[in-house]
Amino acid sequence: MQRPRKPTSSSSLRAPVRVARVIARLNLGGPAYNVTILSGGLDRDRYDTLLMSGEVGPGEASCEELVKRYGARELKIGPLRPELRPWRDLPALFSLARAMRSFRPEIVHTHTAKAGMLGRMAALAVRPRPLIVHTYHGHVLEGYFGPLRNWLYRALERLLARITDALIGVSAATVHDLVRLRIAPRAKFRVIPLGLELQRFLHFDPEARASFRRELGAREDVLFTYVGRLVRIKRLDVMLKGFAAARATGTPIRLVIVGDGELRPALERLTAELGLEEVVRFAGYRSDLEVVAAASDAALLTSDNEGTPVSLIEAAAAGRPAVATAVGGVTDVVRPGTGLLAPAGDHEQIGRLIVELATDDELRHEMGDRAREHALTHFTSERLIADVESLYDELLEARRP
């Protein structure tokens, strides 16, 4: 997705602004998707972007193919890893600082917690000091760790916020949380929602759709789909228990879980304990998510916390409504009339909403149409690029003498 060059004018003769974009790893998910879109999609007459990233963690699917798809220029930072390991973080910090001193960015834009910490510290080694921007794609400042680690991480984020020129949250809920936790004053934040390339979800191959449904045995059943990592915060145990409760009513439903992760063996055992082996399929990672979305009748997400759920946006672009928990940025995606929301952890309510959506074809179709309209209005890559370029312009203008 390389944007065409604009005709040269006297105002565009100066060299492009150098932007160092930093993320810990390009794993499957919204942050990697967005940094590759931004790295390849900004106006190249005005911005020269270098994407600095580490390696994906064990068992994670890589999104490196997105680097090629969007024409991003990438530099691998070998020691950079997603886990917090001080004995490796120091070499990663030095490697980032060397790379930045060589590239001499005018803007350093970091994404996610680990890269945000090391990337912003490394930016201080560059002279003249670059503008520093950080995006929170959600946060881990409550609900993940014990009291001591929560205090430490919040203290670090508050210190880093002081050297940051602008902070971005991908949802209003994320920004609200960070202000409530006193990371920085509200005036320092911008809300810039995710932007995705959604065109491939607007049209589908009917035979590919039918083939995937046959593969799952979902010829006439209503098919719900989860797409994402199999990790604790996603609470797939709640999803499976809610699905079991819905299935117990006799509603003809099936579930496909697309993705992988450390909890897959435990979740497969739970599926068996709940008697769902015939109607729940673990499909692993798949690259043809437009086929998955087209084959589905509705999306399902039961996380305890979310930044902005890519899976629900893509499902919405395909005209599929959602049953989800009302957490984080989910409520920015699942608006009234585009899906049904339940409190976090409430598997009984999840089950009731699954039945409500599965037994009303007209409701599903009406919600799906409204979900598509909402996604195409608020979550496109074009809107994301325009918003970020506007922020950069504002910061650069404020710095000029």
Structure commentary:
The chain is α/β, with parallel strands linked by helices and 401 residues long. The protein folds into two domains: 10-197 and 380-399, Glycogen Phosphorylase B (Rossmann fold), CATH 3.40.50; 199-378, Rossmann fold, CATH 3.40.50. The chain has helices spanning 30-41, 64-69, 86-103, 113-123, 147-162, 172-180, 206-216, 236-247, 264-273, 289-295, 310-317, 330-333, 347-358, 361-378, 381-399; strands at 17-25, 47-54, 74-76, 107-111, 131-136, 166-169, 189-191, 222-227, 253-258, 280-284, 298-301, 322-325, 339-342. The strands form two sheets. Strands 3-2-1-4-5-6-7 form a seven-stranded parallel β-sheet, sandwiched between helices. Helix 1 (30-41) crosses helix 15 (381-399), helix 3 (86-103) packs across helix 4 (113-123) and helix 11 (310-317) crosses helix 14 (361-378). The radius of gyration is 22 Å and the shape is globular. Mean pLDDT is 91; it is low at 7-11.
List the uncertain runs: 7-11
CATH superfamily of the largest domain: Glycogen Phosphorylase B
Residues in β-strands, percent: 15-25%
How far apart are the first and last residues' alpha carbons, in Å? 35 Å
User: How many beta strands in the DSSP annotation?
Assistant: 13
Mean pLDDT, to the nearest integer, reads: 91
Instruction: Assign the structural class, choosing from mainly alpha, mainly beta, alpha/beta, alpha+beta, or little secondary structure.
Output: alpha/beta
**Tally of helical runs:** 15
**CATH C-level label of the largest domain:** Alpha Beta
**Tally of separate domains:** 2
Backbone CA Rg: 22 Å
Shape: globular
Order of helices and strands: EHEHEHEHEHEHEHEHEHEHEHEHEHHH
CATH fold call of the largest domain: Rossmann fold
Helix content: 40-55%
CATH architecture grouping of the largest domain? 3-Layer(aba) Sandwich
The largest beta-sheet arranges its strands as: 3-2-1-4-5-6-7
Largest sheet report? 7 strands, parallel
